Amino acid sequence: MQNETCNYRDYFHAGQKARVEVALPEDRVFNDGAIVTSVDDTEIRLRLFRERLPADVHLHQAPLVVRVGVSGNSYRCKGVVLGNLTEEELRVEFVDRVTPEDQREYFRLATEIPVILFNVTAGTAEESGSGGLRVASQDSLPRIVNISGGGLKTETEMAMTCDDIVYATFHLPLSEPKVVPVVAQVMHSETIKHGDGVIYSAGLRFMHINERDRDAIVRFVCNEEIKRIRVSRKDFYSLASS
Fold this sequence. Notes:
By secondary structure, the chain is mainly beta. The protein contains one helix and 14 strands, in the order E-E-E-E-E-E-E-E-E-E-E-E-E-E-H.
C-alpha cells in the first residue's frame, strides 16, 4: 500500500541517475539506466538512456522498480508505468513507500524455501525431511529466508560459522520446479534464541553455481517482485476507492 506521508522528493530529484527494472512476459526482464526529469507528490518522470525501446517491449501499465543512490545509500520504490511520453521517456506512478537496500549486484527476495544443507567444512548435514541426513526438530527448518542471484540467507539448527563451505540443494518454486545445487561460502552467521534452543541464521555467497540456474533464480526473484507490486497496486486502488 502506498504510504501517503512519504515525501518522494527527499529521495528523487530532477537530473538524478536511476535504474529501471521491469519484468516482461516469457520470463524476460527489461533493465535500463535513466535520468529523472521531474518528480511530484505521487509521480516521477524518467528519460531512458537508450534512444528507443526494442520493438517487442511495451511498458504502458507495466509494474516496475526504480532504484536511485542518495548520499552513498541505495533506495528503491515500486511503481507502475502510466504511459510513454516519448519513445524513451516514462511517466511512473509510485505505489509504495521508498525503502533502503544495500548495493549488491543482485536484488534479494524474502521467501521461504526448504533446503538441504551439508556443511563441508564441519562434516555435518541437515534437511527438513527424511533421506538419511539429520532431520531438524522443527518442520520448517532448514529453510531459505531470502534469495538472490548471488547467494542465500538460511535458517537452520545446524551450526555454521564464517568461511565454512556449504553444499546446498533446493527446489526453486517455478511453474516447473527446478532442482538447484550450489556450493557456497558462509559470509556471516548469528544465533537466534528459539524456545529452549537456538537456530542459526547464515548468509551464504555462491562460489559455484550453473549460470543457467543463476538465471532461473534471477527470473524467479524478478517475477515474484512484480507479483507483489501488482498486489500492492491493487490494495492501494481498493483503499482509494473505498
